[in-house]
Amino acid sequence: MESQTVVKEKPEIQRLTNNVSLYISKSHESSRINKTGSWRFARPVYENKTAPCSAACPAGNYIPEVVMRLTNGDVRGAYRSIIKENPFPATCGRVCFHTCETACNRKGQDQAVAIRCLERYVGDRAMAEDFPLDAPSVPATGKKVAILGAGPAGLCAAYFLTRLGIACDIFESTDRAGGVMQWGIPAHRLPKPVLNHEIDNILNLGINIHYNHILDETFFSRAQDDFDGVFISPGLTIPLTMGIDGEAHVKEGLQLLMDIQRGIVPPQKGRVAVIGGGNTAIDVARSIKRLGADPIIVYRRRKQDMPAFEEEILEAQKEGVEIRELKSPVAVEKTARGFELKVVSMTPVAEKGTDGRTRVIPVDDTMETMEFKDIYSGIGASLHGAWQPAEPDLKTTFANIKFDLKDIPFVYGGDCVNPVQSVTHAIASGKEAAIALGVFFKNGINKLEETLNSCRVGLGDALSMEIYLKGKRKDNASHVVTESQINRDYFTAVPRIDPGHMMPETAVTTFDEVEKTFTDTEAMKEANRCYQCGFCNECENCRIFCPEISITRQNGRKVIDLDYCKGCGVCSVECPRNAITMEEEK
Amino acid sequence: MKQVIEGSHAISEAVKLARVEVVSGYPITPQTHIIEAISEHCASGEMKAKFIPVESEHSAMAAVVGAASTGVRTFTATSSHGLALMHEMLHWAAGARLPIVLGEVNRALGPGWNIWMDQSDSLAQRDTGWIQLYCENGQEALDTTLFAFRLAELVNLPVMVVIDAFFVSHTFEPVDIPEQCLVDDFLPSYAPRIALDPDNPFSLFQMAPPAVYMEMRENMHQAMEHTLDIYNAVEDEFAVIFHRRYGMIEEINCQNADIILVTTGSTTSTARQVQMDLEKQGERFGILKIKTFRPFPGKLIARALKNARKVAVLDRNFSFGSGGIFAQEIKGALQPLNHGPVVFNYIAGLGGRDITPEIISEVYFKTRDRQAPPAGCEWLGMNAQAHK
Hints:
The complex is a heterodimer.
Chain A: E1 26-27, E2 42-46, H1 52-56, H2 63-71, H3 75-83, H4 89-95, H5 99-103, H6 115-128, E3 144-148, H7 152-163, E4 167-171, H8 180-183, H9 192-203, E5 208-210, H10 217-226, E6 229-232, E7 238-239, E8 251-252, H11 253-261, E9 271-275, H12 279-290, E10 294-298, H13 310-318, E11 322-324, E12 327-334, E13 339-352, E14 358-372, E15 374-377, E16 381-382, E17 401-405, E18 409-413, H14 423-443, H15 448-454, H16 465-468, H17 504-507, H18 520-529, H19 541-545, E19 551-554, E20 557-560, H20 570-574, E21 580-584
Chain B: E1 2-6, H1 7-17, E2 22-25, H2 32-44, E3 50-53, H3 57-69, E4 74-79, H4 80-95, E5 101-106, H5 120-123, E6 131-134, H6 138-155, E7 159-164, E8 172-176, H7 180-186, E9 203-204, H8 210-242, E10 249-252, E11 259-263, H9 267-280, E12 285-290, E13 292-294, H10 298-305, E14 310-315, H11 325-334, E15 342-347, H12 357-369, E16 378-379
Parallel strand pairs in B: 2-3, 2-4, 4-5, 5-7, 6-7, 11-12, 11-14, 14-15, 15-16
Antiparallel strand pairs in B: 1-8, 6-13, 10-12
């Protein structure tokens, strides 16, 4: 059964041609006569916003810009981005407790970007390749400021003041600069050559530093004559006491840490108690472990209430530091074998204390006795009475400084003022003091508040030197980009990279640094995980997706041709990082 | 050389032989084998074509519309919901007068979900301005695909080559696959009338205000009419080279028949056997196979049917609230005749149900034994209890 007719003969045929009439719309006029821009009721505007990491960083680091330069392979550029706001990348990259990572939008997808490790990578590359500390600065103003204390706040005040053309003399009571970074933080967290490299970079900007300086009444009266302002950042140097019987038998943890820095390393043996729950207690315990003993942290609240940074607690536990929580010391007695620590067991209660923390109360009167070879306290320190800042009126109390105007301004900063005692907050304090003094010298006390607030990052407390110096960052909107404003379609889940740590068994035998630094490849991979929230990194999505082809690149800048942009908003939606805002036409 | 291949591959072989330059497509049963084979030919380099994978049939048609606007030969294939999703772009292809060829495998639309044979999908695209050619078997599918490119490029209208789901698409039959040199003789490389060219920029298909729109539509209609005029001549070209032709319609014993059954697609093959059997029994039974649905060869059909007493139209499709779609068209075509035949309309084989020889016999005898058709149409092969 054939369904088709078979043709036997080959007929003569004329091959057909297409001569059908064709009436379609076609024009050699440019379609640009149709100005689709007239349809628009909203227009896209390139507007960099504030990344949550930047807003959360006390030092106001411009993290998306740092990461953008890193992903471009420009480590030198990344370093320049950091030092605009913070001269301590290698140090902060090791010891900062990274509020940036806590705020990171990426957490919603997989894990926060390892921003601290990236900062360290940049700092380490800068050190290895000796990048100059060459942030933008202004010419000398003829003003001079005295700085009391060469801790992170004092050093940063000097750094930022120098950049503002204000000469500085630092007066330091010890024989080294660095403060808590030098004396408090052990080398296994912050190797001193790293710290000293960054300190030297700052001092080499032409800052006079006077070591072993006695800061007394005479000094103060002389300061009034010789300087136009004083920045006071003495740090907290007086160890807190517990007020318990036999406290004289308790050794000071801070002193131990300082002794170790001076090369005095008393060998330790047996069980050694460390009382406290802050970073000092952890640093003391981990140092004691390295000196050969078995440290036990005794803490009166719960483990989750410890003010020490979580990572530090975990590292200590990995190294074999035992933590006895809810044990409150009440007395110490010397025995033939060492010391007895009497403690009572505590229990949490529902009502919170005035500081908002969960309160603990004794379970009962039962006393428990613990035996130790030695007992150290690591419960923190307080300000030396001589430095108690005067209470200036509220108008001159700012996020990280107190500004007390006498004949000349006395600005208090660092741990004695800061709500949180950390290196990064100290840096913030130094920067705030420098900008405040700069504003004061230029425009007087009345402009202080307004100018400082105009330099805040994302309406938070952090200040930006780049904004103060009227750099490009001043154009950024203060809106902090939220997780839902990131176009996740452009980001695949990639696990966060861990830089690696020395094995705990090895780590406890040495004061060598425990955490490793990123390799070039790791740094690049981790940098690429960053969304760069609110920051145009020239990805070109807007230009590629614009259905009207009205986004062009002219002289290296993107330009929106509003004659044709019909306000569809595709560019704004396809921007992976919320750097384009749709504004209603007025 | 004859090879035993399935109907889907008859189309994909033809696309390869036609030297198509851009193919886009999105998989959907029962069409997938067509696009799958072509993508393999593209990947292996056997076809020097750009295969554009897309995320939907709408985009597949948009991609070939764009490609065809630059003056290259294009192809895509789809089925059922895919064709429905393509609907907007079908208008675009036709209105833009682009000679795109579309392999369409007839399949029912859901819900209830159904992947089987039914003409509702392609007939719903009746008014989009596409030429529609229905094929009976694998050989006709291959030949019609080659023919479709030639026809489309002669009249600047897109062509849909339609085959039955499974009965043709998945059925292996011996198919004569022509030599490339013969295909090249029949189908010269595409010489577009209009092609976008970056060196000579112009814009196409922009706004057509009331002052020109009607003329454009009439112009499309003229191209459809012109298709009817040149169809035989194009078949002459085809037949000279391949020694096969199908016609816009095929008449089987129509001149001697009292009753003529109108069929499309693979049902025709079943009907041919029934017709032979009944003719031996002395019944005056003929078949009219309709291949071209658009343009509709109404005059040819009227001439073929005019001597019959009764016409039975077997529709494998249905227009809700009206009736079988072919029956409506045929009634329209017969309307100019004085004392033309009476038209009986039967609905069968929807959603892949078999149209058996018994059903075709039933159609014949019901038509023979009644003076006039019942009101509306009659559904055959129904399961008695199904919807009680």
